[in-house]
Amino acid sequence: MSEDTSNEDEQHVHRHGEGHRSGRRPRLTGWILTMCTALVVVAVGFVGVVLGHSKTGTTSTITVTGSGTVQGTPDTIDFQIGVSTVNPTATAALSDNDNKVRALEAALLKNGVTRKEMQTSGLNIYDNTNNQGVVTGFTVEDTLNVTMHKVQRAGVAIDAAARAVGNGVQLNGVSFTITNDSSLLRAARIRAMDNARLAAGQLAKAGDAHVTDIVKITDNENQSSGTYYPPVATGASVHASVPIQTGSQPVNVQVTVVYSLAN
User: Cβ(141)–Cβ(170) under 8 Å?
Assistant: First the structure.
């Protein structure tokens, strides 16, 4: 009787142990599966970020500079004309010079220059000294900036002003500009863009690629201005009209263009 009971107890213990172990194994297995699933999700998420970043590549570009130049006829002339007077006293020099300036302005006004086109740009009074430092007199200089839109009358105006002033006249040069240059700039820009496109296409072809779209354009206007210095004599030796030739003036535009490339 006792042997049967011990066998039953051993069998009970054995079954109880198996039942205890079989009850814990599913919980451990579930935890491991949960961790593995989480690791897989994290790994997939990381790979997705890397792949997304790798697909966003930088676009290949090429940067070129194109230039376009057209010729135009200047429609504005600018020059500086003034008067210089020397006198033993400062007040006398200033008074004499003022009279000459009035005569100069009157001559300009009679020959196509308006008051809005004249502006005083300099008035100087200084003493003259000899080698010993003794004051021998005073000099007064008065200068006008003149802008004439009637270019064809500029020679006559300069001649008349020089005759009105006499030997004290001063002329500091002549420059020409094109004030109404919108149509010229438009034509120059078209030429500059054509030049840039041609250069970009040649470079891209040499690199086994071709130009696609424009990424960026930078417009750099560069209007050049010619300068002419006519030989102006003074007093009675001045000719009936100072010869002034406007000639032609280039209007230049430079553009920097960034193009995208494709193979």
Answer: yes
What are the phi and psi torsion angles at 58 (to 5°)? Answer: -80, 145
Strand order from edge to edge, sheet including 118-129 = 118-129, 135-148, 76-87, 169-177, 227-228
Strand partners, 169: 83
- Give me the chain's average pLDDT, please: 79
Going through the chain in order, the beta strands assigned E by DSSP cover 61-72, 76-87, 118-129, 135-148, 169-177, 210-223, 227-228, 249-262
d(CA 161, CA 239): 12
CB atoms closer than 10 angstroms to residue 70: 20
CA separation for the pair 148, 152 (Å, rounded)? 9
Residue 100: Cβ within 10 Å count: 20
Q: How far apart are CA 7 and CA 16, in angstroms?
A: 14
Pairwise CA distance, residues 144 & 240, whole Å: 22
pLDDT tens digits, one per residue of 194-205:
999 999 999 999
Q: The pTM is what?
A: 0.60
Residue 153 dihedral angles phi and psi, to the nearest 5°:
-105, 5
Instruction: Please report which helix (H) or strand (E) contains residue 226, including its range.
Output: none
